[in-house]
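User: I'm putting together a teaching handout on how sequence relates to shape, and I'd like one worked example. Could you take Pirin from Niveispirillum lacus, show the sequence you're using, and then write out its predicted structure as tokens right after it?

Assistant: Happy to. First the sequence, then the structure tokens directly below it.
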Amino acid sequence: MADLDDIHTLIRSHGGDMDKVRELRPTMSKAQLNLLEIAIGMMSEEAGGIGISHSGFALTCLPHKSIDKSDKPHLWRKPGYKTTLLVQSGYTEAGDLVGIPFGSRARMILVYLQTQAVRNNSPVIELGPSLHAWMKNMGVSSAGGMTYKQIAEQARRISACTLTFLTGDATTEIRSNGAFIEDSVLSFRADDQSQPQLWNDQVKLHKRFFDDLRRHPVPILESALRNIASNSAAIDLYIWLAYRLHVLEEPKLMPWPALFEQFGGGYQHLRQFKQPFLDSLKVAMAAYPEARVTLDDKAQGIVLHPSPSPVPKSTPRLAVA
């Protein structure tokens, strides 16, 4: 992770003086500038609030791009480590597909839903003004234009879909922890196509999923999400690292084939996947400065090293009943 190491070394060499560090921008590549801005963002703001993700999203993930034009637009199946994610599209009253949620907006909405469920100790979550306020705080504007429509569309897809984690392997029985959404009440305005508003919309998490979420939460920093909110691959990797690193007792090799199986959705071949994966990993690590991840000396994959949790022990935790 040479670029990222260089960024952190650069910041330390200037004693954390961000003004001096910013003066060096003209000498940096676009990728280095992106990492620098994330690193500066993490150093410039307090830890802030705690977000929550189900551990299943650390083991598998949604598509990064729309699959509406694929041969199976109604179904997304993504295997991961002893976990498979199945997402089935909902349908409109007319029988048309609503579509599979995808991209960074869908991931941010899912984090919001899970965080609010744990924070309020309730499976019922608002999808209206509260969601928009949270997305705005996360740096995702919801005030008009294309971004507003994207948020509303992804919320609609999430509310309508069946999202299920299947756990097990070839030698054990596969079991489901229950669908993600049990009920939803949507009230999109049809009279304003430029801003399809969500009013007092609600979703209710499936009881088994809600119970499982409270038993197996992955705490993450909202400040980190704010700095990588537009990068769906980096969000996936950040949650994965937050789940894996702090429980390791020794270095763990993650071979390229295993990484490709979990994170390679959208890529035909492993060789196409490696560099984009490493680029996104650097972004995730810029938002998680404590993370220690290195390239394997024999180029077999990456090595995860025991690292502190991204959520400092001094940060107030959400109560999990």
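A couple of points you could highlight for students: Confidence is low (pLDDT under 50) at residues 188-196. The longest strand covers residues 83-88.
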